[in-house]
Specification:
Helix 1 links the parallel strand 1 (2-5) and strand 2 (27-30). This protein is of the alpha/beta class. It has 4 helices and 4 strands. Helices cover 36% and strands 16% of the residues. The chain has a single domain, classed as Rossmann fold, CATH 3.40.50.261. It has a 4-stranded parallel β-sheet with strand order 2-1-3-4, sandwiched between helices.
């Protein structure tokens, strides 16, 4: 299983849970600021990795949603792709802490 997260804290929590459940974590990638790579780059690369059987994403936003979904539809032919996205919270809209 590979965990790809826009939040280091959330991703580390998922990685810890995966380890406790002995799920076989092969990769943990945190890409919070997306300065060099983005979710599309990661999906493109990891979807073809034969060592990974499940892709788990935590995404706070997607720039090119149509392309990501097209690539995701192709990826799920090879392996399950799970995507978690935080919902809207009043605190987050006001700049406050958002519960996970």
């Amino acid at each position: 299983m590979a965990i790809i997260s826009q939040s280091g804290t959330v991703g580390a929590s998922f990685a810890g849970w995966a380890e406790e459940e002995t799920l076989g974590l092969s990769s943990f990638i945190s890409f919070g600021n997306k300065s060099d790579i983005n979710e599309i780059d990661l999906l493109r690369h990891l979807a073809t990795d034969k060592e990974i059987s499940v892709l788990g994403f935590y995404l706070e936003g997607i720039k090119n949603g149509r392309l990501f979904m097209d690539m995701g539809r192709a990826a799920v032919r090879e392996k399950p792709v799970v995507i978690l996205r935080p919902g809207p919270y009043e605190q987050g809209e006001k700049g406050g802490p958002v519960p996970y």
